[in-house]
Amino acid sequence: MFSYYAWYSVGSHFYWSKAFPLYGRDYQSVLEAIDKMEKNLPGFFYAGNHKGGLSVGKSIASGCKAADLVISYLDSSSDNMKPN
Ligand SMILES: Cc1cc2nc3c(=O)[nH]c(=O)nc-3n(C[C@H](O)[C@H](O)[C@H](O)COP(=O)(O)OP(=O)(O)OC[C@H]3O[C@@H](n4cnc5c(N)ncnc54)[C@H](O)[C@@H]3O)c2cc1C
User: Fold this and answer.
1) 27, 33 in Cβ contact below 8 A?
2) Which residues form the Amine oxidase domain (predicted)?
3) From atom 4 of ligand 1, which residue's Cα is the shortest distance away?
4) Ligand 1 pocket residue status of 63, Cβ below 6 Å
């Protein structure tokens, strides 16, 4: 695979000159780790192309979804702080 996609590395970064890298074979474990972080860290929401698909359009959709979750979270947090 690496012979087809020309790449080189600088430090810890890989630069792909003819293609962009796709999800790896253990991608499911990445999704599970993201889910775990979101569950264990209230108020933390993950967005971007690691979750929900590659491409600018999908990343924007992922960001909008996360923004909705943040708004709901903040609304429910402020509701809990209101005096009864
Ligand atoms: C070569 C190439 C061609 C592509 N062509 C297309 C195309 O034609 N059409 C299309 O729809 N999609 C294309 N894509 C895919 C698309 O660019 C990505 O899916 C999309 O940009 C991902 O958006 P993102 O916001 O999740 O991540 P990114 O756009 O990668 O943004 C992440 C940001 O976080 C910053 N960052 C990273 N680490 C840290 C840190 N520790 N602290 C602070 N900031 C940090 C980075 O500098 C970057 O600005 C292409 C991708 C590549 C690589």
Assistant:
1) no
2) 12-71
3) 20
4) no
